Amino acid sequence: MQSYTLYLIRHGAIEETNRGSYIGRTDVHLSEKGKQALLQISEQFGYPYAEEIYASPLQRCTETCALIYPQREIQTVPAFSECDFGAWEGKSAMDLAGDPNFAAWLQNSDKTPPPGGESGKEFAVRVCRGFEHLVEDLSAKGVRSAALITHGGVIMTILAMFGLPQAESYRWRMDNGYGFAVRVTPMLWMRDRVMEVFDTVPFAPKKSVSEEE
């Protein structure tokens, strides 16, 4: 049975994140610096080829796709949207200081949702179900490689749940425009719902023997 290679790539930078704001469902554009950084990464390293391109439907992800996979058809998947921060969208921790709901959320975000938003558990269930459906879609189509351009929280959740080696979600942090390459082996996936994380994306250039010396 053939294995599948997936490239999980975080979208480019946005101004709101730089200001420390909680941005989940809010549909913001890439910053100009974010666009330039993606083009520079693409020119310097190049993003790996993928037969299919999937993305969160939010603009910061679709705009990233257009820059790093130009003129490719994009399949947007709502399940891969960032966590919904509800009434806290666009606000910073400083803005929310003194709010008892915010304090409770910091203590246990898995069970405590922001007002009008998602709890950590609800977010994780949505993302993981979406990823399982994605793997099923690849298998049904006979596709051997795909790229998923999405949000940092989505990628960390996927890898914490399904990735080998096993690690807490914070261990899978990545910068904007970067991500991880994973290999899904059907037998291992069907038996244990796990996959191998085998590299970072874009791939680092190989060192020559003289450079290593």
Major sheet attributes: 7 strands, mixed
Strand tally: 7
Uncertain segments are: 207-213
The SSE order reads EHHEHEHHHEHEEHEH
Strand order of the largest sheet: 3-2-4-1-6-7-5
Principal-axis shape equals: globular
First-to-last CA distance: 41 Å
What does the average pLDDT come to? 93
* Beta-strand fraction estimate: 15-25%
Query: What is the count of DSSP helices, taking H or I runs of 4+ residues?
Result: 9
What structural category characterises the helix and strand content?
Answer: alpha/beta
Q: Which features characterize this protein?
A:
213 residues, seven-stranded mixed β-sheet, alpha/beta, 39% helix, single chain
Structural topology:
Blueprint: E1 4-10, H1 15-18, H2 32-44, E2 52-55, H3 59-68, E3 75-76, H4 93-96, H5 100-107, H6 120-141, E4 145-150, H7 152-162, E5 163-164, E6 179-184, H8 186-192, E7 195-201, H9 209-212
Parallel strand pairs: 1-4, 2-3, 2-4, 5-7
Antiparallel strand pairs: 1-6, 6-7
Helix pairs in contact: 6-7
